Amino acid sequence: MRQRMIILLGCFLGSLAFLWPAQGQQSSDNLVITGVIKDKENRKELENVNISVVGSSIGTVSNEDGVFSLKVSKATAGRGLVFSHVGYLNSHLSIETIEKQSDRLTIWMTPTAQMLDEVHVYGGTPRDLVEKAIEKIPQNYADKENLFSAFYRETIQKGRRYIGISEAVMNVYKTAYSKRVANYDRVQLSKGRRLMSQKRSDTLAIKIVGGPSLSVFLDVVKNGEELLALEYLNQYEFTMDKPVSLDNRMQYVVRFQPAVFLDYALYVGKLYIDQERLAFTRAEFELDMSNRDKATRAILYKKPAGLYFKPQEASFLITYKQQGDKTYLNYIRNVMRFKCDWKKRLFSSTFTTYSEMVMVDREEEGVESIKYKDAFKQRQVFYDAVNEYWDEDFWKDYNIIEPTESLESAVNKLKKRR
Q1: Is residue 355 within 8 Å of residue 383, measured between CB atoms?
Q2: How far apart are CA 351 and CA 403, in angstroms?
Q3: Residue 293 has what pLDDT?
Q4: Domain range spanning residue 95?
Q5: What is the pLDDT of residue 9?
Q6: Residue whose C-alpha is closest to residue 149's, from 398, 414, 338
Q7: Which pLDDT does position 258 carry in this prediction?
Q8: 86: which of 20, 41, 132, 202 lies 20 to 30 Å off by Cα?
Q9: CA torsion through residues 262, 266, 272, 273, sign
Q10: Are 95 and 78 a contacting pair, CB within 8 Å?
């Protein structure tokens, strides 16, 4: 992670906050479709399942409890829903089933072991495969500018206890992928809220990698200055893993790990590449923690004097979704875990910051760029840019990622303390 990747996440209790006007109104013509997604064989809940309206860009993802909620117009719901997850056959939900739902649906997804006979064998090396997929980026991804509506949530935990929750609806502007530069891609806050612990001992006065701007910099397919840059491939060793199915399409899986020693931390992870189109569909990677000093320089931007910062995890997940003959950014998740020790204190504290952003809708006709003065800045702290207001009807017709049960419990506890 080079210095240019550093963007900020911070928790500063008592900071000023602002609320942008809402860009959407509640409508009686909408349906709210809720359910839980489970593995058909072991009956376990499935997180990060992609849910979308057939033939549209409208969608969301399931939370860690497998729960999802999707708000769509009655006319749009007639197309039905499709559920896709790595290693599973797609599941479909018809409008008839939606209309018959009483409370919450259960969606069963089937593992795709039976599809392995469709595997394509690639004749080159794993490195060759990655290079070929990079070459095909202009062909496989958006060739015009797009404007996404996205839901973003950021949480902070001290140990197992939530001490901060912030979330927002964002506008994400992306230029064409024909030029792999992120300089003109921008994020704009539309509407947001926050809820923070008021305990003095919970104050976390540091700045680390994170924030809504990750949707710009962590789009490794678009951002040619990061992981998938041809000039950086020599830094890694590539190996082929077992193929999997995603969205009913077989994927090559390429593992990578550092092959050289540099003065900054590299990554360890996996790339998923569509076997037919050679399009990147998913990237899972984490910062190499073998050298803690390098990892600290990559993660930490600012801390108080006397605090010892000890990084433990910096992991990332980016997924892409095919629509028509193009592939688009779909979901980004970032987890940071670290310990903080203070001089003259007996015990250290473990903190975890978790952020995720899902693209819930997309426009590509008549799109205008987000002006720089209106964009969320790289060094802006997300917590400072959202309002403290919190109520059950805040989002109305917006599509969001459903909170987990533990997060809902944390919200209730934090609200009682105010």
Answers
A1: no
A2: 19
A3: 93
A4: 30-114
A5: 40
A6: 398
A7: 96
A8: 132
A9: negative
A10: yes
Taking only the tens place, the pLDDT of each residue in 111-161 is: 987 555 555 666 789 999 999 999 999 999 999 999 999 999 999 999 889
Residue type, 143: D
Tokens found for residue 205: 């006065």
In this structure, what is the dihedral angle of CA atoms 376, 378, 381, 382, given to the nearest 10 degrees? 40
Tokens in use for 222?
């678009």
The model's pLDDT over 290-309, given as tens digits with 9 standing for 90+, comes to 999 999 999 888 888 888 88
What is the token pair recorded at 330?
A: 């779909």
pLDDT (average), residues 73-93: 91
What average pLDDT is seen over the chain?
85
> Residue 198 has what pLDDT?
77
Question: Closest by alpha carbon to 176, among 131, 150, 132, 140?
Answer: 140
Q: Which of 91, 114, 137 is the last residue of a domain?
A: 114
Q: Which residue has the tokens 């095919």?
A: 322
CB–CB of 40/366 below 8 Å? Answer: no
> Could you tell me the pLDDT band of residue 331, with boundaries at 50, 70 and 90?
very high
**What is the C-alpha separation between 191 and 391, in angstroms, rounded?**
13
pTM listed for this prediction: 0.89
| pLDDT computed for residue 206 by the predictor | 81
Q: Indicate whether 76 and 225 sit together in one domain.
A: no
**Could you give the CA distance from residue 364 to residue 176 in angstroms, rounded to a whole number?**
10
Instruction: Check residue 117 and give its pLDDT.
Output: 52
Helix or strand run (H / E) with residue 289? none
In this structure, which amino acid lies at residue 239?
Answer: T
Do the strands 146-158 and 50-53 form a parallel or antiparallel pair, or are they unpaired?
unpaired
Domain closes at, from 79, 114, 149: 114
Q: Output the CA–CA distances (angstroms, integers) from residue 153 to 166, 241, 245, 333, 402, in the order listed.
A: 6, 32, 28, 10, 10
- Bridge partners, 267 (sequence order): 287
Task: Give me the residue label for tokens 């749009």.
Answer: 76
| CA dihedral sign of residues 110, 281, 265, 375 | negative
Cα 413 to chain centroid, rounded: 26
Q: Are 274 and 371 part of one and the same domain?
A: yes
Are both 64 and 154 inside the same structural domain?
A: no
163 & 52 share domain: no
For CA atoms 142, 145, 149, 153, the dihedral sign is positive
pLDDT at 124: 83
